[in-house]
Design goal:
GO terms for molecular function: oxidoreductase activity; zinc ion binding. This is Zinc-containing alcohol dehydrogenase. Keywords: Metal-binding, Oxidoreductase, Zinc. Its cofactor is Zn(2+). This protein is of the alpha/beta class. It has two domains: about 200 residues, Medium-chain alcohol dehydrogenases, catalytic domain (Quinone Oxidoreductase, Chain A, domain 1); about 140 residues, NAD(P)-binding Rossmann-like Domain (Rossmann fold). It contains twelve helices and 18 strands. Strand 14, helix 9 and strand 15 form a beta-alpha-beta unit. Helix 5 crosses helix 6. The longest helix is centred in the middle third of the chain and has 13 residues.
Length: about 350
């Protein structure tokens, strides 16, 4: 079948809207009519893998309606409303332990994973497209997924809001609710108030008695963080945030989340922790943070990574959507919708800081 897709042929050039050919679903595949797809920084990073003769089809926060399923698929049916998320094998020790984000086969399944027989799912002008990103490549009117990364959701859910639970919102909310697990009386410092950090802030607000500090350079995002319920907002360009956090909390944050991927920010977050406190890192940056080993040992602090919010998506995504439906997790405040043909406008407004989470609508 033919559908419209947003392709990247050159990371230095604009995305292009093109007609592509999509294969019919194999026995283990699910054909989804995409309604919405969030744009994530991870999509932009992976544009570099394209070539003029083999463009990249990205998108890993898709949501839509199941059109048809292969003969071996039993967990979803045509007409189901679904959110697409990351793939996992379901059989390795980490998957068996309920940690699918750390699946030992994750790279092969998610990083433009191909069919076992190497046949093309998507072609353009007869040439194969680099697709299979997070097992979906959902920057298109239709996408092929599999049962392990397809989560059935309430048909009443707004799919434009639900889409980003597939990655960004799941990552931020899960880092708080699954990894950090703050309790009443905790002080949570969040570094970066983009989509992931803002989702983390909203998740923290669902836990009674947790107080939050948001550290963010952009004035518009600090203002939004205040509107979303942050107890304190700090501009790291204006003040010594470590000293300010120590004074606000009376000794240091009990929990912290770094969404920036910056070694310097992580080192500052670590230094601003109180005794026995933990900082969770979700940003995929590079470099080595300067962490005082004596402080690490004598203060009993912890630094740990967290991928996809330590989530089990089949249960966590419906849980988050339920919180949203009940008005406890207003992530719709973070979403701005754009027709898929306006992806360049969406990216420009996100880069300018006027948009937190751009979502493409088909």
């Amino acid at each position: 079948m033919q559908t419209t897709a947003v392709l990247s042929r050159d990371p230095a050039a604009p995305f292009s809207v093109e007609t592509v050919d999509l294969d019919e679903p194999r026995d283990n595949e699910i054909l989804v009519r995409i309604v919405a797809a969030g744009i994530c920084h991870t999509d932009l990073v992976n544009r570099v893998l394209g070539k003029p003769d083999r463009p990249v089809l990205l998108g890993h926060e898709g949501a839509g309606v199941v059109e048809s399923v292969g003969a071996a698929v039993t967990s979803v049916a045509p007409g189901d409303h679904v959110v697409l998320t990351f793939r996992h094998c379901g059989a390795c020790p980490n998957c068996a332990a309920g940690r699918p984000a750390y699946c030992r086969n994750s790279t092969a399944l998610n990083h433009f994973g191909r069919r076992p027989d190497r046949s093309a799912r998507v072609t353009v002008a007869g040439l194969p497209v680099r697709d299979g990103f997070f097992g979906q490549s959902s920057f298109a009117g239709y996408a092929l997924a599999t049962a392990d990364n397809t989560v059935v959701v309430d048909p009443a859910a707004d799919l434009a809001v639900a889409a980003s639970f597939g990655c960004g919102f799941q990552t931020g909310a899960g880092a708080v609710l699954n990894a950090l697990r703050p309790e009443s009386g905790a002080w949570l410092a969040i570094y970066g108030a983009g989509a992931v950090g803002s989702a983390a802030l909203l998740a923290a607000r669902t836990v009674p008695g947790v107080r939050t500090i948001v550290v963010e350079t952009a004035a518009a995002r600090r203002k939004l963080a205040q509107e979303l319920g942050a107890d304190e907002v700090l501009d790291p360009a204006e003040i010594d945030t470590g000293a300010a956090i120590g004074e606000i909390t009376g000794g240091g944050a009990t929990h912290a989340l770094d969404t920036t991927g910056s070694p310097k920010v992580l080192a500052g977050a670590f230094a601003a922790l109180g005794t026995g406190a933990t900082v969770v890192v979700v940003g995929l940056g590079g470099g080595v943070p300067e962490i005082d080993v004596r402080d690490l040992v004598l203060s009993g602090k912890t630094v740990r990574g967290c991928l996809e919010g330590d989530a089990e998506p089949s249960t966590f995504i419906p849980h988050l959507l339920d919180l949203h439906t009940r008005g406890l997790l207003p992530v719709d405040r973070l979403v701005t919708r754009f027709p898929y043909t306006e992806i360049e406008t969406a990216l420009a407004e996100q880069h300018a800081g006027s948009v937190i989470k751009p979502v493409l609508i088909w």
